[in-house]
Amino acid sequence: MKRTIVGFHLDEEGDWVAELDCGHGQHVRHRPPFVNRPWVVTGAGRAAMLGTTLDCVRCDRMEWPEGLVAYRRTPEFDETTIPGGLRSEHATKRGVWARIRVVSGALHYRVGAPIHRSFRVVPSSDAVIVPEVPHLVEPDGPVRFFVEFSRKEVPTQRVDPRRSGDRDGVRIRGSCDGP
Length: 179
Ligand SMILES: [Zn+2]
Prior knowledge:
The protein is mainly β. It has three helices and ten strands. The protein has helices at about 45-50, 55-60, 85; strands spanning about 1-10, 15-20, 25, 55, 70-75, 75-80, 95-110, 115-120, 125-130, 135-150. Strands 5, 6, 7, 8, 9 and 10 form a six-stranded antiparallel beta sheet that branches. Strands 3-2-1-4 form a four-stranded antiparallel beta sheet. Zinc ion binds next to helix 2.
């Protein structure tokens, strides 16, 4: 899916990595004549690419980014106390990942566009919620579960100045990660 470039850094080999708003990084190498990105080697070139998008296959694969820190969890819900908002389509905000932790029982977890996958989450599952991707949960009989939210602890050093005030990110059709 498309993710917005919010910064750049050099990796240990001296190759440029674009930092995406999902928390993933993506190499943007300039290796002529096969890979031509002359813009990446100049500060002005990189600055001009902030706010543009790249396809993030790691989000498509629901891959948990490195370096996230858990910052909040919901109360524990059961099949009678689960908020209605979680049972209809909703999404976390920009850059907010979450894990569904089932304590006992089972939960159906349906992920909408562009991922389109369904899971039955049990206590041993690793159920990942991807930022801004619509999803919903439904109890599968008696269940006890909570949701734990994570994001990058320290915002990137080279944020897009047009977005630096936007710390809470965007909302899509409601949000389950609170204020
Ligand atoms: Zn991503």
